[in-house]
Amino acid sequence: MPKKHELTEFERGEIISLWKGGHSERNISEILDFPKSTIHDTITDYKNSEKISAAPRSGRPLKLAERDVRRIVKIVKEDRQQFLDEITKKFNDGLPSPVCNSTVKHILHSEGYFGRAGKRKPLVSEANRKKRLDWCCERKEWDTEWDSIIWSDKSRFLLFQNDAHHWVWRKPHEKYDVNCLIPTVKSGNQGVMVWGYFAKNQLGPLIQVSGSIIGLVYIYILENHLLPFYNNLENNLQYFFQDDNAPVHRARRVSQWKEDNSVSTIPWPAQSPDLNPIEHLWDVLERKVRAHKSHPKNIRELMVVLEEKWNNIEPEILINLVNSMPRRVQAVLDSRGNPTRY
């Protein structure tokens, strides 16, 4: 896409050098990806002035010195969720000539900082960051091994979803920086808790869960839902079952049940929803429920719609999610164990 900014002296020099080398304006435009009108104007200015630098422009001089710009950026970095009024007030404290919000906003924009909706991600403790990193280092060469994992998790779906955004000041590449994320919190809104699981080539049933899941309840779910699914898989002894580190999943009686029924598990790093592809399956389900023509009015209707949409999830979605595992692992390695875009 053609660039739209004031040319630097180096860029003007490139244009003039190519022109002097016999290139046409159209050819220079294609080489440097500048609009043809920009190429023409730059060459015309050079012919008239024999200078590469741009002519001085009139206008109001900058009100702030470079150290003031650095101070504004420092204030923003201390708390990315501040309102513009707060940033301006902090900056003006002790100044003989205060500036307005527009000036501060202009400076922030010129430094590459814009107000954006913060991405919601669970924060990762330092200990779990290291565990996530180690887990991914051990599996960075995995490929088809991911095809033999049964992914599981539970999720809560609300009757009335809160879509409110929390805004942060950030640069475009800082979208998933730790200090630009919004920690996720549990909602008290009315909804339904479900538990589900899938493998690359097959989707398990969606199970409604009421109340707290204790050891006996979890064993009942595994016995009556997971085990039939597991036993029907071809070469099922090659499969590993994934569940997270919730205390009930690691309870002694649950571990004994898994051992008695030859259900092998994969160790799992805490605070790692971005490594579990079923999290994106919940997103798919959420979008399908929201797109349903008549929105559910109560828990019963919500569960009916959830089951209908779940059972109609396209097989290629499951395949694509499992195929994303090498990229998820690499993303965690690149972030040194911190939250990723997944």
Automatic annotation (TrEMBL):
InterPro entries: Homeodomain-like_sf, RNaseH_sf, Tc1-like_DDE_dom, Transposase_5, Transposase_Tc1-like, WH-like_DNA-bd_sf
Transposase Tc1-like domain mapped to chain residues: 70-140
Signal peptide interval: none
BP GO terms, sorted: DNA integration; DNA transposition
Pfam families per the UniProt record, alphabetical: DDE_3, HTH_Tnp_Tc3_2
A GO MF term: DNA binding
Domain Tc1-like transposase DDE: 244-297
Domain of life: Eukaryota
PANTHER family: SI:DKEY-77F5.3 (PTHR23022:SF135), TRANSPOSABLE ELEMENT-RELATED (PTHR23022)
UniProt-recorded name of the protein: IS630 family transposase
Organism name: Rhizophagus clarus
